[in-house]
Amino acid sequence: MKPEIYVFILSSYLYRCFAIVGPITEDFVQYLKEVEHTNSGLLRHVKSFDHTGSFGGKSFPQEKVKHSPIVFIHGNSDSALKYGNDQYQSGWDTVVQYFMDRGYTLAELYGISYGDRNMTQSVFRVFNCQDLLLHRQLLLSVLVYTGARHIDIIAHSMGVSIARAIIQGGKFTSEKESCDLGSDFSSLIGTFIAISSANYGMCSCEAGTAFPACDKEIGFFPGYCPRQNCSSPSIKIGAQCYKTKYSKFLTKLNKVHKKEAEFIASIWSKDDEVFLKGNLVWGKQTSLVPGSNIWKEYPQLTHMETKTETAADQFKIITSRSAPSAQTKKSYAKRKNWNFY
């Protein structure tokens, strides 16, 4: 090999080792093309976005994968990588860079965008077959491509519900469409970090069912409990409104009494402007994924900051399954008088 070619390859590899670069690498693209009839939708989707629309993949076929791969799933109207200057399209740049600064490479870190990355359209976004199937295929592709025994997932907001659905598998059905998400995938997920999720809906959707995002079937509808305040911290609320019927999609996810990963960590802010102060929905912590091994509540972080400003804790959870000041499921059950598996 000519020296100048070797230097070019080496410099390109080193650049990808230390800098976040999108879209997914050519090596990953070529792998997806090997089974194009299966991955055609994923390939078209990645191609439809710019360089901020996806990331991940080996720089060359022989590159070693030393860590369990991580798939990142962003929230409503966000992006795989930073898109523009809006805080709601901050992407995973900060978190991915934190991991790369500590030894991870893009061969171990993956993410794609979904939706239109337009915050003004966020109220019209619902769960759908396209987003679910694309992320399901990404999980399967990363697993086989890297040869890993299992993968980890870090998801934020709406991305947490997407992650839970594609891990559980089964059928997704709405009034407009139906699709098969495949078999249960939980045995192949090592650690799952759920950031600021809405597992029991959002109180801001209680009176907003005119917007698709708050839909009673495939949105974040929290249910309705007469003469009560949805976000109230009162202990009585939990007793009186515990059986309130909320989003059918979310209800189905929560009825599957099986953990989506070997280890689940839920983190959120009590001052989240999207979920309202306290993060409560009829007495339940909406960002606590059922079956979580540990949880952590932050003060004074915004909805997006729970993703961008908690990189150190995310890294700690992935690498050691712990985090400073994190609580266990037993401590939560004792504090809230609410048992969960």
From TrEMBL:
Gene Ontology terms describing biological process: lipid catabolic process
A GO MF label: lipase activity
Signal peptide start-end: none
Matching PANTHER family: FASTING INDUCED LIPASE, LIPASE RELATED-RELATED
Protein name: LIPaSe related
